[in-house]
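Weekly sync, protein design subgroup
Attendees: M.S., D.O., the rotation student, P.L. (late)

Item 1: inverse folding check
M.S. brought a backbone from last month's batch and wanted to see whether the design step gives back something sensible before we order anything. D.O. pointed out we never logged the input encoding, so this time it goes straight into the notes. Structure tokens as presented (215 positions):
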């Protein structure tokens, strides 16, 4: 299996193609593309043979043709706001910018086609970061917290909150440099959920037990 990884920090941002042995739990880098020293890499998403990679404040959305063995850069798009997280519904891209607004973006030019205002019981939920679409719902890390909110894309309502405090504690016990929760990947073929964070030593395969459902 292949697991694509986007990394951040200025001077260290990359796109990495990993060979992922899901049975043995081993992740082996196969190819890397370094971003410019002036880019802070953010969320990535794949639609078909095209991979998209956000940058934080630089206004660039990198694109790669991944139909071959190695990713081939193609002309980038321009982003009109900060880039944080990125996901896809299969036809369009879903982007976050650190606010409570998620934008649905065209794959033709990254223009905004729709905006989703995320709310929990009528209150705006901001600092939305890494994104993943799982079984029709948008999962979003809430930056600087150990929580993931599950969002109905039609209404913007938070329907569940995933409590990852034990996972964060385990990562920090393994490596004191482990930072915030900031990575969600969903293997739809096998219904496997993977979570990680900034500078975490591990990627965790998770069995889902929602902490609670919001009525």
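Designed sequence read out in the meeting:
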């Amino acid at each position: 299996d292949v697991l694509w990884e986007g990394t951040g920090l200025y001077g260290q941002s990359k796109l990495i193609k990993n060979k992922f042995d899901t049975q043995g739990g081993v992740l082996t880098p196969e190819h890397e593309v370094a971003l410019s020293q002036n880019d802070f890499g953010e969320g990535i998403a794949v639609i078909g043979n095209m991979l998209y990679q956000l940058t934080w404040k630089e206004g660039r959305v990198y694109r790669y043709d991944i139909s071959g063995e190695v990713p081939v850069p193609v002309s980038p798009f321009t982003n009109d706001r900060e880039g944080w997280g990125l996901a896809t519904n299969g036809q369009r891209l879903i982007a976050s910018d650190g606010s409570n607004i998620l934008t649905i973006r065209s794959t033709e030019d990254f223009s905004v086609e729709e905006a989703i205002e995320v709310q929990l019981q009528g209150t705006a939920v901001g600092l939305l970061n890494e994104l993943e679409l799982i079984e029709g719902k948008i999962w979003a890390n809430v930056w600087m917290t150990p929580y993931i909110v599950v969002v109905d894309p039609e209404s913007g309502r938070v329907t569940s909150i995933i409590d990852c405090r034990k996972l964060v504690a385990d990562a920090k016990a393994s490596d004191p440099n482990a930072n915030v929760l900031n990575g969600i990947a969903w293997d739809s073929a096998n219904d496997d959920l993977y979570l990680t964070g900034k500078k975490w030593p591990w990627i965790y395969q998770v069995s889902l037990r929602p902490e609670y459902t919001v009525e």
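Discussion: The first helix runs from residue 165 to 174. The first strand starts at residue 2 and ends at 6.
Action: P.L. to compare against the previous round before Friday.
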